[in-house]
Write a structure and sequence with these properties.
Elements (H helix, E strand, L loop, with lengths): L9 H9 L2 H6 L11 E5 L5 H9 L4 E6 L2 H10 L9 E5 L12 E7 L7 H12 L2 E12 L5 H22 L10 H6 L2 E9 L4 E8 L2
Parallel strand pairs: 1-2, 1-4, 2-3, 4-5
Antiparallel strand pairs: 5-7, 6-7
C-alpha cells in the first residue's frame, strides 16, 4: 500500500469530491483535545489536521507517522517556515513494524486511517497502538460509515464501494470494506465519550477515552 503517487494531488481531489466536509469531520473534537501534551497522528497524510491542531496548541510534542514519504513531505510543506518544527517528529514507517513507546501518548488521532485495513489487520493493529496510550488518554477516530438502514445505507454503500475500487487500484489498498473498530477499542480499555455524524451518516467522528 502506498499513497505516494496520490500525494501531490490529494488536496485538490478531496476538495473537488468533498469540499470541506472531511476536514470538518477530522476537526470535530479539536477543542476537546487542545490540552494534549504528547500526540500521535496516524496516517496524517498531507497535514491538514496537524496544521489545525498546531494553531490551538502551542506546547504539545507531536509524532506524525505515515507509510508514505510523499505524504509526509506534503505535511511538512503545509507548515509555515519554522512553525513548531521543534515539536513535530515526522516518521516514515509501516505502522505494523513501528515500536511505539509504551503508555506515552495522551492523544491518538486516526483520521480516515482504519478504513485502509482488513479486519484481521485491525485485530493486530489496535492492541499494538493501545499499548502506547497513557492512562486516561483520548483517541479520535474519524472515518466513513455505513448506516444501518434506509436510503442512507444504500447511498453510503455506493460511495464507499466506488472509493475502495479507486484506492485499490491507485494505492494497492488491502481493505475492501469498512470494519467497525468500536469493539476493538472497547476490548483495549477505551470508552466512547462523544460521537458525531454528518452527510446522512456517511461520515462519523468519535472521541474515545481510556478507562483502564
Amino acid at each position: 500500500m502506498s499513497f505516494d503517487l496520490l500525494a501531490p494531488h490529494y488536496r485538490w481531489m478531496e476538495w473537488v469530491l468533498a469540499g470541506g466536509k472531511l476536514q470538518r469531520c477530522r476537526t470535530t473534537f479539536l477543542d476537546d483535545v487542545r490540552q494534549a501534551k504528547n500526540v500521535l497522528l496516524l496516517g496524517e497524510g498531507n497535514g491538514r489536521f496537524l496544521k489545525a491542531f498546531i494553531e490551538i496548541n502551542s506546547t504539545a510534542n507531536i509524532t506524525v507517522l505515515d507509510a508514505s514519504a510523499a505524504m509526509l513531505q506534503q505535511a511538512q510543506r503545509r507548515m509555515e517556515p519554522n512553525e513548531a518544527h521543534h515539536r513535530v517528529e515526522y516518521l516514515h514507517a509501516d505502522v505494523f513494524a513501528w515500536s511505539p513507546p509504551p503508555q506515552h501518548f495522551d492523544l491518538i488521532v486516526s483520521n480516515f486511517f482504519f478504513d485502509c485495513f482488513r479486519a484481521d489487520q485491525l485485530e493486530q493493529l489496535i492492541p499494538h497502538l493501545a499499548n502506547s496510550a497513557s492512562p486516561e488518554a483520548q483517541w479520535i477516530v474519524s472515518d466513513f460509515n455505513v448506516p444501518a438502514q434506509g436510503w442512507a445505507r444504500w447511498r453510503a454503500r455506493g460511495i464507499i464501494a466506488a472509493m475502495y475500487c479507486f484506492f485499490r487500484v491507485a494505492t494497492r489498498l488491502p481493505a475492501q470494506r469498512i470494519t467497525p473498530v468500536a469493539p476493538l477499542l472497547e476490548a483495549n480499555g477505551f470508552q466512547m465519550r462523544q460521537s458525531s455524524s454528518s452527510e446522512w451518516g456517511l461520515l462519523h467522528s468519535d472521541l474515545w477515552q481510556r478507562t483502564n
